[in-house]
Design goal:
The protein is of the alpha+beta class and 414 residues long. Helix content is 14%, strand content 35%. A hairpin with a 4-residue loop joins β3 and β4.
Length: 414
């Protein structure tokens, strides 16, 4: 018998707007305003779901089912195989979402443009619909029925949604790594901000997420590394393979709320150039925080952000400042600089874990003449904090969900 801990399977992670991305059709410059506005709506959505016990959202007119709220800006994608014979599909991976879905023929409602051919279940010998009577169907939280077939409906923010059949299929991660009867959404009516990705792979902590469905195989353990720039690739790895590298230090995972699917973490402090900022510990604990692969910019309690900004501006006093670029208020013009000395920023997490951010995790580059400190303040200290993907760049981020801990290791990728 193979123990879960000895299995390991790795996928290549690519930024969806990068030159390596299979999704990029026209290499138009990235619209930063659009990306950041999308990010802002994801943040609002996550925060509204964490503060109310109910998902009290009205289904959109286009959705004939009650919709479960969620929001994805989704910056990073992986390619998996679905069906028999296997068809490759590029999916956004998201630790803040539970349902894995892809667009499916015949697109009864509508399908947006994706880079690969849309999956056709009628051409796969391993596809099967899930019946309304099954427990999986009731675990969806929000589902409906078409005859005896289970339907799912998931809504992301205000514009994006996917509605279709809840089904099982053969999922191929690597030639010898196959998951049979994987439960996923076969989307017949899909709209929104998914770029040209074929759908989404849900990695949150929920009974139907990929993590839970593959628990016997991978032991509820996965890790990823997000590359420093869109020109590099990172990885998403499922399973342990003899344990995490010794350079990884672990902080406890917590629940923001009992029924939350998000991965809660405890930020306890921030340092600039090795000097801890004087931020009362209650500032971080009042709203709590989660780590999220799909939020671009880390959202901090305003008290913490203002201390960080003051120290950072002081350390950067010799550089020319540039106009703000919403949501960023601390920007610099580096267009005439040959080298820039970047102050170090260290995040401290519960359990004595310190993460020294990579320079790519400190700045958001709009253009050479407008390079901004890549953090944003929440409206109040009591709002949920979010540790976003910019700050996670180049770290091996290890989710030991079974063990209830999250690990950070430096130099996981370039």
């Amino acid at each position: 018998m193979i123990l879960a801990s000895s299995r390991k399977s790795t996928l290549e992670v690519i930024h969806k707007h990068g030159p390596c991305s299979p999704l990029v059709q026209d290499h138009n410059p990235l619209n930063h305003t659009e990306v950041l506005l999308q990010d802002e709506s994801r943040v609002k959505w996550i925060q509204s779901r964490s503060s109310n016990s109910s998902n009290g959202l009205k289904a959109s007119a286009a959705a004939s089912l009650p919709a479960k709220s969620d929001i994805t800006a989704g910056d990073y994608v992986v390619t998996i195989g679905l069906g028999t014979p296997k068809k490759d599909l590029t999916l956004i991976f998201d630790t803040g979402s539970y349902l894995t879905w892809t667009q499916c023929e015949p697109c009864v409602g509508s399908c947006y443009t994706q880079s690969e051919p849309i999956f056709n279940p009628s051409q796969s010998s391993s596809y099967a619909n899930i019946s309304c009577a099954s427990t999986s169907c009731s675990q969806l939280g929000v589902s409906g029925c078409s005859g005896s077939t289970c339907l799912y409906s998931i809504k992301y923010g205000d514009q994006s949604f996917s509605i279709g059949f809840f089904a099982t299929e053969k999922l191929t991660i690597a030639p010898r790594e196959v998951i049979n009867k994987f439960e996923f959404g076969c989307g017949q009516n899909n709209q929104g901000l998914f770029g040209r990705a074929a759908g989404l792979i849900g990695l949150s902590d929920n009974s139907i997420s990929f993590v839970e469905q593959t628990a016997a195989k991978y032991g509820k353990y996965f890790s990823y590394c997000l590359p420093s720039s869109t020109s590099y690739t990172g990885h998403l790895t499922f399973g342990k393979d003899g344990g995490a590298p010794s350079s990884v230090s672990f902080t406890p995972l917590s629940k923001v709320r009992e029924d939350s699917e998000f991965y809660g973490i405890s930020i306890v402090g921030i340092s600039v150039d090795g000097n801890p900022l004087s931020i009362p510990s209650t500032v971080f604990s009042s709203g709590g925080a989660i780590i999220d692969s799909g939020t671009t910019v880390t959202q901090l309690p305003p008290t913490a952000y203002s201390a960080l900004r003051t120290a950072f501006r002081k350390a950067m006093a010799n550089y020319t400042s540039a106009p703000a670029f919403s949501p960023f208020d601390t920007c610099y013009d580096f267009s005439k600089e040959s080298t820039v000395v970047v102050p170090s920023i260290t995040f401290s997490f519960a359990g004595g874990v310190d993460a020294d951010l990579d320079p790519s995790g400190i700045f958001y580059v709009v253009k050479a003449s407008q390079v901004c400190l890549a953090f944003a303040p929440n409206r109040a200290d009591s709002n949920l904090g979010i540790y976003g993907n910019t700050q996670q760049k180049t770290f091996e981020v290890v989710y030991d969900v079974a063990g209830g801990k999250l690990g950070f290791g430096s130099n996981g990728c370039s």
